[in-house]
Amino acid sequence: MKTQVAIIGGGPSGLLLSQLLNKAGVETVILERSTRDHVLSRIRAGILEWGAVDLLREAGVGDRMATEGIPHDGCYLTDEDLMVHIDFRELTGKQVMVYGQTEVTTDLYAAQDKMGTQILHGVENVSIHDLDQSQSYVTFRHEGEEKRLDCLFVAGCDGFHGVSRKTIPEEKRSEFERVYPFGWLGILSHTPPVHDELIYSNSRHGFALASMRNENLVRYYVQVPLTDTVDDWSDDRFWHEFSRRIPSEAASRLVTGPSIEKSIAPLRSFVSEPLRWGNLFLVGDAAHIVPPTGAKGLNLAASDVFYLHQALIDAVKGGSTTGVEEYSARALQRIWKAMRFSWQMTTMLHRFDGEDSFAEQMRKSTLRHLADSETARRDLAENYIGLPY
Ligand code: FAD
Ligand code: DHB
Fold this sequence. Notes:
Mean pLDDT: 97
Number of helices: 13
Shape: globular
Number of strands: 20
Strand content: 25-35%
Radius of gyration: 21 Å
Low-confidence stretches: none
Bound molecules: flavin-adenine dinucleotide, 3,4-dihydroxybenzoic acid
Helix content: 25-40%
Largest sheet: 8 strands, mixed
Strand order of the largest sheet: 6-5-14-15-16-13-17-20
Structural class: alpha+beta
């Protein structure tokens, strides 16, 4: 097989990159380890920055998002004493969009099918070769056969556990990591949201987040110890814990119901530099992970795709390599700013086991500062709605 850009991974990064490249006349083949149903059933991100919304529109997948997505003008940050409203629209003139990752990937698969892009599911033993030559190739096993895909460039869009990052020699990679001592237990439930905007709540029982997918589908989270498993959390236990962690006024309006999905995600900050090795480019979770507080994971994947699609179009269609040479440095500047924001939001809103009373005072005074200073709120809002590409 032969293509211009081989894309490893058919999650949001790989699909969006492929769609934007195909629209510009650049050929791609996507190699995905899982089935399409599996990719589409992974409940993950829920909030899109406006830059990501614009990029999805540019990719030609904005129609359903325009009717089913819910623009949000603000969110709340609370502890037991204060409830601070961050008014994105007033502070920045912009909004975010509530539109789940499952919907984004559904729309992208439909658009790629229309485009006639080859997406191979169930590929195994993906291995990337000759990255330092003018042409590279990828070998893999598919439907019981060993196959080879020749290409000019390889996009590593295969998530944190993929092969792409590990293909870069260890001595050429710098890795930066912080693992947090807790996870998030998330549930989906067909119930009306407890509030019309998101609530990030730091209570004495730990963090909780009230989010949503639509007017009758909620996504709620609670901070849990890393040792907990989903089996430790009956629906009743979840609702009890969630309702005592959100402000009492919101809890009084809480409607409970059966969960239709329940999962635990560990929290981690991670960056691997550089994002380029010869003809290979890392994109999204393959290169970096943020803790979910602040909803930056999927949005960072989108900004990587923004930089890389332009660079690859210039290289393939225009013969200019400036963009591919600058991709890593350009993307990393924005990645590190989102790393800082997600780390700060995580530190401000969670309880850490064994922390001292000083740490609690720091959290309280950060929230107090946000309540009292419009400048502080504007800074948070600018980061939340998404820094410019
Ligand atoms: P992925 O979505 O991981 O996609 C990578 C794809 O590559 C997968 O389909 C995988 O099957 C495939 N793949 C892996 N290895 C191979 C291989 N060897 N060969 C071929 N294919 C391979 N972000 C938020 O903003 N908000 C959230 O609430 C949130 N919750 C999350 C919860 C969990 C449990 C996780 C893991 C992430 C969460 N994120 C969240 C982050 C967000 O979902 C990711 O940033 C986003 O999915 C990144 O997209 P991606 O395409 O780069 O990677
Ligand atoms: C969601 C997840 C987040 O991490 C976040 O900060 C906001 C919303 C969600 O899944 O809806």
